[in-house]
Amino acid sequence: MFEIEKIIEPDITLVCKLNNDGSIGFINKAYTDITGFSEKDLTGESHEIIQHPKMPKTILEQVWKNIHTNEKSYIIGKNITKNGEYFWTVADITNRLGQSKNPGIFIRKKYLPSNIKDEIAKLYEILYGIENSGGMEIAEKYLKGWLEERNSKSFEEYIFNQFGGEKNLKKYLTTEVNDKELFSTDPSSMNIDEIMEFVKKKKRRRFW
Amino acid sequence: MKRIERPTPVNEEIKLNPMRTIMSKTDAKGIIEYANDYFMEISGYKEWELMGQPHNVIRHPDMPKSIFKILWDRINQGMPTYALVKNLAKDGRYYWVIAYFIPVSKEGKIINHYAKRKAIPDEIKDEITSLYNMLLELEKTGGMEAAEAYFLSYLEEQKMSYDEFIFDTMRLSEKELKKYMDAQITDESLGLDMSAEEAIKNSVKKKRRFFW
Lengths: 208, 212
What we know:
The structure holds 2 protein chains of 2 kinds. Chain A is α+β, with helices and mostly antiparallel strands.
């Protein structure tokens, strides 16, 4: 289960809205297309259903803490499809629970460039392993040391650095990349610099 | 969490890449909080085995306790300290390093120790082994205090401070040693066939850090 990687094209944006209780309120068409889950499969279910079971809690807890204090957070996630594949995404999460119009937690996911993926896959495997052998506290300390070695104070800062700053990451997450040229390249072999080259030429599109 | 049992030593050396750095971070009590890739590769442990364990799981029985006593006395005073150390890998093999321990304090209390380690030339291993063997023998007969007294009077005789003893043994100035400790490469295959002598020579003559 979850041994085969599904490569998603960098032009695809997966959107998911969570309710107050963490259940799924809405997913976009790209989400059902990619994951094979139907709207009916997911609506009302806990968000964990689309999350890889080996996502480290250390990362998840930090993100939930962030969105409840800062209203916005970023995460690199390992996701699953209905027929047991996995795929990596970088996402921003926006807390709009306090809004009167369309309240909820909005998650916007995009393809994670391959050069970041390798390092993160290794980190998550280690964190998951430590959580299960030594516990959360030891895993949190490991993550802190790992980030220090990479000159980052937080995991978010690390993600920003990988994308050349928060501004660039936001641009990537909000840009539709639909060049024919890009389609012809295997996205799994594309690194962030190559993707950002395309992104820079594109205009931002807002979802909310 | 279960303590790891220290492996039984075998008399075989692990060759280090002198261009790579073994790094670790412990809490004030010496419990491992973080160790880098190269630490895991050389020690042979997995992160989930080693994190949360006391740092002395990699301590080799050939290391005199008196050296660690002197080392910890200095570190606990907040002094960054070098040491020449023989370490023990999971499979029982050993590897020699020059280690640099950096205590980090918060509100006057030490909270963490950072350490980086690099390979040392074979010649220096032989030299330091004879000194350590002497200290080990003294520890057996006269206890740790006798060994410590011997070492300190040895320094006195040579009119050297502990730091000077390290620089003298490494045949480097403080600045040169620092340059070697800071030299890093990102391409892991580089430096594999390089001896520690060559790596030291290369890093010392560089004005800046290595960038490749």
